[in-house]
Amino acid sequence: MKQIRKVLLHELVAEEIRQHIKLKQLKNGEKLPSAGTLANTYGVSIASVREALRFLEATGEIEVKNGKGIFVKEIEPFKILTNIEVEHEKKFLLEMCEVRRALEGMAVELAVERATPEQIQKMEAYLIEYDRLRALGEDKSNADLGFHKTIYEAAHNPILEKVIYSMSDAFMKFWEKPFGIETIFDDTYPIHVLLLEAIKNNDKKEARRHFYSLMDSVENTIRNVFIKGEIQP
């Protein structure tokens, strides 16, 4: 089964406001209901509505005028939304890469020392499945996720594992098709193979080097996948 992205409440409210604008065919400069009215209409808190309005104002879809109300703005929604959402996702993923380097990097080093033969076999099985699905052009995210989760388990440090899993929602961004591109990190597969080989050989230096190489590749892909909101050829 595919991982399901958690949708924040303000994102749902923002989408409802977009639908309201579309259904009412509101034009540039036309007024929307007040934040209080929107909160009552959608059955959410006024704080959630205000957060949704801030988001829509940031994307240029509405304008909030103090003391006057909320007004529709005429924009090129796809172009503007794409640029803003891409830059937001880029920033988030790059910041999470730094966290992964620290936490997963430590897990890799511990896994070199502590991985059991059964856990090594699990990692191998996940990579075989990943390669099979990749060849078929099918979703590989669960196989990739399983490989990394087994590394966390192989560290045999319950506190480290709990810290990593406490951030699982954020980490899942790497396995839920970032930027809507299923093949975005396919180039890292050979590095996964080298990483596993180093773990099997109890070579901590090589395991660390290959893990950092993997993260370098991920970061470079994130930085370069979009240029001005468009996918690179």
UniProtKB/TrEMBL annotation:
Stored CDD domains: WHTH_GntR
Listed GO MF terms: DNA binding; DNA-binding transcription factor activity
HTH gntR-type domain sequence ranges: 7-75
Record-linked Pfam families: FCD (PF07729), GntR (PF00392)
InterPro entries, per the entry: GntR_C, TF_FadR/GntR_C, Tscrpt_reg_HTH_GntR, WH-like_DNA-bd_sf, WH_DNA-bd_sf
UniProt keyword list: DNA-binding, Transcription, Transcription regulation
UniProt-listed PANTHER family: TRANSCRIPTIONAL REGULATOR, GNTR FAMILY, UXU OPERON TRANSCRIPTIONAL REGULATOR
Protein's name according to its UniProt entry: FadR family transcriptional regulator
